[in-house]
Automatic annotation (TrEMBL):
One Gene Ontology cellular component: cytoplasmic dynein complex
Keywords for this protein: Cell projection, Cilium, Cytoplasm, Cytoskeleton, Dynein, Microtubule, Motor protein
PANTHER family, A to Z: DYNEIN LIGHT CHAIN
Record-linked Pfam families: Dynein_light
Superkingdom field: Eukaryota
Protein name per its UniProtKB record: Dynein light chain
Localization, UniProt: Cytoplasm, Cytoskeleton, Cilium axoneme
Presence of keyword NAD: no
Annotated family: Belongs to the dynein light chain family.
Subunit field text: Consists of at least two heavy chains and a number of intermediate and light chains.
Organism: Paramecium sonneborni
Single GO MF descriptor: dynein intermediate chain binding
Function: Force generating protein of respiratory cilia. Produces force towards the minus ends of microtubules. Dynein has ATPase activity.
């Protein structure tokens, strides 16, 4: 009985996390952060049927950011990586999408 409740709670938590973005590190202004997060979420969701195409999602996000904020944006999406990059001030965002998909965007 207790195990069944824990399984239901876990399923509910997964449902709630679907489509959520958790910002881990950023130096962007709040307005820019909101717009970049929206670009990332829409880029991932538009390229995730039936399975996520990371390459296409990165391309979509990069094009959207370069159209809005100018050239030389870099987009990295994946699981289990570390980074050490030099970026322009106020252009770095590292976030998690759906709990385990890491997204790093920055302007070089």
């Amino acid at each position: 009985m207790e195990e069944k409740k824990e399984t239901q709670d876990l399923a509910q938590l997964k449902k709630e996390m679907l489509g959520t973005a958790i910002v881990k590190d950023t130096d962007m202004t709040p307005d820019m952060l909101s717009e970049v997060q929206d670009s990332i979420v829409s880029g991932i969701e538009n390229n995730s049927a039936p399975i996520l195409s990371i390459e296409n999602a990165c391309k979509t996000i990069k094009e959207a950011l370069e159209k809005k904020y100018g050239p030389t944006w870099q987009v990295i999406i994946g699981e289990g990586y570390a980074y050490d990059v030099t970026v322009q001030n106020n252009t770095r965002l590292f976030m998690f999408y759906n709990g385990n998909l890491a997204c790093l965007v920055f302007k070089s």
